[in-house]
Design a protein that fits this description.
Blueprint: H1 2-17, H2 25-28, E1 49-57, E2 64-70, E3 88-97, E4 100-109, E5 112-123, E6 127-138, E7 147-158, E8 169-170
Antiparallel strand pairs: 1-2, 1-7, 2-8, 3-4, 4-5, 5-6, 6-7
Length: 171
């Protein structure tokens, strides 16, 4: 269950915080880039440290809280989890919005395509909120995953415990 919660949190945050340089995997390998978004801005990144994240919505019957170690922001990587193999994004745009930023991404993995739209608001040094809507398509997508709305409320608790790697869930 804990691994599933970490995965749900990471999925929500993947759209919000991954690929900060706005490049797809193909672009990083030298392939042609898709048409640029009308406006690209930097996605605000959380201050490295131990963050308590409460995830609600989606397939969860009740809000669930996890503590996750967040590492320094590295362009093109998700600061909330280890880089995810096999995920490619054809779209990944961020634009400034009042109080934060809005994002849109279209990513594919394991025969599914996930389109994510959302907004990040708050102070990335101490507390932030992410509201995200995901639409998943593919041959074997369960109906409850076809469209989900999730909210992540996060509060920085301090530094990560000794030995905790970025992306790790801490008890």
């Amino acid at each position: 269950m804990r691994a599933q919660l970490a995965m749900i949190s990471a999925v929500a945050m993947l759209a919000a915080c991954s690929n900060a340089d706005n490049k797809t995997a193909a672009e990083k390998d030298g392939a042609a880039a898709p048409a640029p978004a009308a406006e690209n801005a930097s996605m605000p990144a959380p201050k490295p440290g131990l963050w308590q994240q409460t995830v609600s919505g989606g397939m969860m019957p009740a809000p669930t809280t996890v503590k996750m170690c967040v590492g320094p922001t590295v362009a093109g990587e998700n600061p909330f989890s280890a880089p995810q193999q096999g995920v490619t994004c054809s779209e990944n745009s961020v634009k400034s919005a009042p109080g934060g930023a809005e994002f849109h991404s279209v990513c594919a993995s394991q025969g599914m395509t996930v389109t994510s739209d959302g907004k990040v608001s708050g102070n990335m040094d101490s507390a932030y909120k992410v509201d995200i809507t995901t639409k998943t398509t593919g041959a074997n997508v369960p109906p409850q995953m076809a469209e989900m709305k999730m909210t992540v409320d996060a509060t920085r608790l301090g530094d990560c415990p000794a030995g905790a790697a970025p992306g790790s869930v801490v008890q």
